TrEMBL record:
One of its GO terms (molecular function) is actin binding. This is Profilin. Signal peptide: none annotated. Gene3D superfamilies: Dynein light chain 2a, cytoplasmic. It holds the Pfam family Profilin. It comes from Opisthorchis felineus.
Length: 175
């Protein structure tokens, strides 16, 4: 992030206020930055067809694309619960979950800490298309949750790498 406050004490630098639990969208001045990350860097790559970036703590949605890919707070909680279960080496009791309108089944968390799930039902799927046509992947930083959906027929390794690279970027920025 750019700052004109170089050399000033940290307490003199403006800090963005924390969001309340009931807020679902981030309308801060950083909205353009979040939109650029999702729409230009992630969706613009052509590797990922749906993406959402959320605050891990408040569950506020920073940016998303396309327009209908907006998970609820409860859906985000379930996804974060799956990540925590894997970290604690607990068995996943119910592997089925929804993110926005996508119905998914948990598969695994990779060594790179990417949660993977099959997309079983989606507006992306054509009537004659296999339910194994798309995959959901999710990564977390200390403060953010990034979710992406990509076609399995495409370059899925590059899509996963893009999510990992974006996670590392967000973590380095303290986001």
């Amino acid at each position: 992030m750019y700052s004109d406050n170089i050399g000033q004490p940290e307490e003199a630098v403006y800090k963005k206020p924390r969001f309340f639990q009931h807020e679902s969208f981030d309308h801060s001045t950083n909205a353009d930055v979040w939109n650029q990350i999702i729409k230009d860097s992630i969706l613009g790559s052509g590797l990922i067809v749906k993406a959402v970036l959320c605050n891990r703590n408040s569950r506020a949605i920073y940016a998303y694309g396309p327009q209908d890919f907006t998970p609820s707070v409860q859906q985000i909680d379930i996804l974060l619960g799956l990540l925590q279960a894997e970290d604690a080496d607990k068995n996943v009791v119910n592997p089925n979950f929804c993110i926005a309108l996508e119905e998914c089944t948990y598969k695994d968390v990779t060594d790179d800490k990417i949660l993977l799930a099959s997309v079983n039902k989606s507006d992306l799927l054509k009537p004659d298309q296999s339910t194994a046509a798309y995959e959901l992947a999710s990564v977390v930083t200390t403060n953010s949750l990034l979710i992406g959906i990509y076609p399995l027929a495409g370059n899925q390794d590059a899509a996963k790498q893009l999510l990992c690279d974006m996670r590392d970027y967000l973590q380095d920025q303290g986001l």
